[in-house]
Amino acid sequence: MVDETELTSQQIERLKNLRTQLPNALVTLYIHERLVGIKFLIDPNGYTIKYDYDECNRLKRIKDNDNNIIEEYSYGYKN
After folding, report:
1. Residues contacting 68, CB < 8 A, separation 6+
2. 3-state DSSP helix/strand/coil percent for the chain, to nearest 5?
3. What is the C-alpha to C-alpha distance for residues 50 and 54, in angstroms, rounded to an integer?
4. Which helix (H) or strand (E) holds 40?
5. Do 53 and 75 contact (CB within 8 A), yes or no?
6. CA of 34: how far to CAs of 23, 31, 44, 54, 79, in Å?
7. What is the pTM of this model?
8. DSSP H helical ranges for the chain
9. How far apart are CA 65 and CA 46, in angstroms?
């Protein structure tokens, strides 16, 4: 759907406007980056959750609508 690693505010607003076309539906938007995973989740109330990934495309952190870290992950290797 979107090839960019970050969506512009205009792109996000266009996606959110889909809800106005479906006034009786609860629409949740999932925006993902190919071969990586979900980048954004926008719930029916417009609340956005952002997913960040490290250089190996592993989930690094999850941020809320106010850019606060909800969860953070670190990976280590065992010898």
Report:
1. none
2. 15, 35, 50
3. 14
4. strand 37-42
5. no
6. 30, 10, 24, 15, 31
7. 0.74
8. 9-16, 18-21
9. 9
Question: Residue 10 corresponds to which tokens in the numbers above?
Answer: 């205009």
Tokens of 52: 């960040």
Q: What is the DSSP letter of 79?
A: -
Query: 4 pLDDT band (50/70/90 cuts)?
Result: very low
- pLDDT at residue 1 tops 60: no
The DSSP code for 10 is H
What is the per-residue pLDDT across 11-52, written as a single tens digit (0 to 9) for each? 777 777 777 788 888 888 888 888 899 998 988 888 999 999
State how far the Cα of 66 lies from the Cα of 75, in Å rounded to an integer. 25
Interatomic CA distance for residues 16 and 63, integer angstroms? 19
